[in-house]
Amino acid sequence: MSAKFRAKHKFFSGAFFLAGIFVAAAPAPVQLPDAVDFWSDYPAEILAHTLVDRMTDEELYAQILMFGWAGQEPSNLLNRWVEQRGLGSVKLFGWNTDDTLQVARSVTALQQKAASLRFKIPLFVATDQEGGSIRHIKGATSFTPGNLAIGASGYPADAWYSGYYIGRELRALGINMNFAPTIDVYSNRDSTVIGPRSFGDNPDTSGILGAQFAAGSIAAGVIPTAKHFPGHGDTGMDSHGRLPVITVDRATFEKRELLPFKHLIAGNVPAIMSGHLTFPNVVNDGAPASLSRPFLTDFLRGELGFQGLIITDDMRMNGATVYAGSLSEAYRMAIQAGNDIIISSTTATLEEPCWRANLDRLRTDLSFRETVKKAARRVVRAKLDYFKGDNPVPVFPQINAIPSLIPDPEGEDFFLNLACRSITLAKAGAAFPTPPARSARILLAGRDPAFFAAAKARYTAAAEFHIPFDFSPSLGSRLENAATNVDTVIICVETESDASLAITLRDRAVRVVVVSSLSPFPALPLESWADTILYAYSTSPYSFEAAIAAIAGDYAPQGTLPIER
């Protein structure tokens, strides 16, 4: 941990309101009335057992499932799962969230259906709103600087308030669970699936910042979920496509991958997401951690003492299904491994094998049935403690209030200030600062509209060179020609291809100012010759505005690179 980080290391309060409540309780000692439901006034321990004991096989199994849907509104199929099966949870993905008000209407409709059932158990409504580029609820919500920018600022308060303001926007929509923070350590520079989603490459810092993000989320009333256990940072593979194999030894695993999770577990984080990853030098059964009882039950619960909910990553990802051989077998393995909630990004058909085969197993295999019941009790108990707690997200959002709450008015100011604190000036040459009065001698080059919007707001007379997504052999010479009549090029580098394009300006008689967005790694080699280099870590409008303001000389950037060079 750097001296700079230690100097900034001031924690915010925010005790986990779900701390320690998910332990499977003893059987109910008294008989409750026949008409009891979720909102009946009985102790949570007794009520959770009673409700689960009275569930049909279908209700029992459905309570531990979480389904998403395609389209702007919940499908008829998903509605039937809630109405006929008693589905326990739903997930909003990025493909159905452009209309913010429609999101709230959909949540309301689904919660109304759940409330009409005999037990009246509300739904967990989840999404991935990590900050940065992983922002599944789009529309009017804040596009924030993200985790790597928080790592560059180094302030735990920035992590806390990021979780808080993101949570407040989710709260307004009726979303009560967020699959964040991502606390994977950015140890593999080839990682494309994690990258700027990480707080950086220091495990201790990642754990401290992740714990503060979670505390801020809880202060907003939203359940945080640390992910992806036991750590997705040391692989260039994406578990959506295939199963990543991470061959670190046990000692490295303990001090690097696990350290952030230990921070979150020590703070009683309410939920952890299991990842589709295998670590053969730690557990050599070949199974992804998400399907591995040694990883989840023996290790996460037994050795690490985690007592909250364990939630799978999307079971439609090949990292899970290819190993298991089928989706229904992957569900079975996930349940027996110790997961409490099984996620599918799409809604299963009513008679799909992942339902039918495991329902049959529940009815014939007493051990499997007890495992499902234990998970269902943990889920229902979590819901009782949460929804009857001090600060839950309202089951039914106030739709008329949403335009005044999203984007969060206080959050907008905070996220711009966070972006300014994160900007890292790696190299300052003759072009730093570049006064806006010189804009007629400047060329702006990049691909992101938010970059051009921020830059043109300050450099109004600057020329523009838009980098297409499909590179052609002539692109370099076209950029050189565009730079003929200027003395400064401000180029935004997001990818390796952008960096290679920037190199065509190396021997030109122009000053090159590089604004690196997303991962810093593509821009690192440019430091040897570029006039000025700034790292912004994000394609958020806040980050581009902060980077351009720094180039213009409005302030002196103080961010620190959160990765080793």
Integer-rounded radius of gyration: 25 Å
Average pLDDT across residues? Answer: 92
Most strands sheet:
8 strands, parallel
In CATH terms, the superfamily of the largest domain is: Glycoside hydrolase, family 3, N-terminal domain
Q: What count of helical segments does DSSP give?
A: 20
In the CATH hierarchy, the architecture of the largest domain is Alpha-Beta Barrel
Spans where pLDDT lies below 50 across 5 or more residues = 1-7, 9-25
Strand content: 5-15%
CATH class of the largest domain: Alpha Beta
N-to-C terminal Cα separation, in Å? Answer: 16 Å
Output the CATH topology of the largest domain.
Answer: TIM Barrel
Placed side by side, the strands forming the largest sheet appear as 9-8-7-6-3-2-1-10
Shape: elongated
The domain count comes to: 2
Helical content class: 25-40%
SSE-based structural type: alpha/beta
Q: What is the strand tally? A: 16
Describe this structure in words.
With 565 residues, the protein is of the alpha/beta class. It has two domains: 55-405, Alpha-Beta Barrel (TIM Barrel); 423-552, Glycoside hydrolase family 3 C-terminal domain (Rossmann fold, 3-Layer(aba) Sandwich), CATH 3.40.50.1700. Helix content is 40%, strand content 12%. The chain is built from 20 helices and 16 strands. Strands 9-8-7-6-3-2-1-10 form an eight-stranded parallel beta sheet. It has a six-stranded mixed beta sheet with strand order 11-16-15-14-12-13, with helices on both faces. It has a two-stranded antiparallel sheet with strand order 4-5. Helix 5 links the parallel strand 2 and strand 3. Helix 2 packs across helix 14, helix 6 crosses helix 16 (409-422) and helix 12 packs across helix 13 (353-364). Mean pLDDT is 92; it is low at 1-7 and 9-25.
